[in-house]
Amino acid sequence: MIYLLPYKTKQFFFVLIKISIVVAAFYFIYIKLTQNTDFDYPIFFDFSTKNNLFSIKIMLFLLVLTGFNWFFEILKWQKLTASVKKISFKNALEQSLGSLTASLFTPNRIGEYGAKAIYYTKDYRKRIMLINLLSNVLQMGVTCILGVVGFSFFVSKYPISINYSKILLLSILTVFLIGFAIFILSKTKFRIKGFSFEKIKTFILNFPKKLIVYGFCFSLLRYAFFSFQFYYLLTVFGINISYLQAMMVISTMYLLASILPSIFIFDVVIKGSVAVYLFSFLGINTLTVLSIVTVMWFFNFVLPSIMGSYFVLNFNFPKD
């Protein structure tokens, strides 16, 4: 029915939708900043001021680390999409930050798939969605690999009550269920949003291996920068801790936080809860941990989403 509307009416609705996305993103940020009962912002600002967090030197260095974090994410997207269509770094920047803003309030960033796809013409969109899936899988792969290593050292050093027999049983059951699900999907014509399991498997198996290696390396570099940013904030808030000891906890935190489903805007709450529990074993107080998680969230998601709002407002559909 929308195709029957006059051109100016369609343009009006299009602008209205773009404004609504930006307003929704900012509203969720506002809600997080004002209605988090677990965090007292006046105390946070006073605590941060005492630790000189707002000095120009520290703020600029945090911005540099955030810049490298997103630089490698954008570079990864540019490289992976080259298998379908070559785009400039500027285009990759627009698509990465614009889709971040559009997906900020969607569960597990699910809105990012559609947001990136609409930057392309119809004949590219399905493949772009699969490339975005691959990009996320690569980042999750790095998080899981380093997280398992960090978790192994963590449980060997700190007295966490773990029922290993239950974990083993759960792991075996999970592997069995995944294997059974893969077998069933491969034998049926089950589809997810138009994608059959066979088509997804074929796409990933035939994807250029060189680009997958690039994607994995960029994911690893991105992880290195945002995890180091967390460690740097620990030192800013006066925590005397070695880098390796901090990374043992940080990698464990990101592993546990990543496997918990959430609305992306409340990702900071989940990371905060996990981080408070894990860093308590090192004797680090709750205020310090929550302050660091909040600063990380602000620099790596709020600031990029504000930049992304510009790209959302200036978005135009590609010409077929």
Explain this structure to me?
By secondary structure, this protein is mainly α. The protein has one domain. The chain is 75% helix and 1% strand. The protein has a two-stranded antiparallel sheet. β1 and β2 form a beta hairpin. α3 packs across α4. The longest helix is centred in the middle third of the chain and has 36 residues. It starts with 6 loop residues before the first helix and ends in a 7-residue tail after the last helix. About 2% of the residues have low confidence. Its main location: membrane. Keywords: Cell membrane, Membrane, Transmembrane, Transmembrane helix. Pfam families: LPG_synthase_TM (PF03706).
Any key phrases for this structure?
mainly alpha, two-stranded antiparallel sheet, 2 strands, 75% helix
Brief sketch in words of this structure:
The chain is 75% helix and 1% strand. The chain is mainly α. The chain has one domain.
Average pLDDT level: 82
Strand content: under 5%
Number of helices: 12
Domain count: the total is 1
What distance lies between the first and last C-alpha atoms, to the nearest angstrom?
A: 20 Å
Biggest sheet overview: 2 strands, antiparallel
What percent of residues adopt helix (DSSP H or I)?
A: over 70%
Q: How are the strands ordered across the major sheet?
A: 1-2
Question: Which geometry do the CA atoms define?
Answer: globular
Poorly predicted regions: 262-266
The radius of gyration is: 21 Å
Topology order in helix (H) and strand (E) letters: HHHHHHHEEHHHHH
Structural class: mainly alpha
Q: Count of DSSP E strands?
A: 2
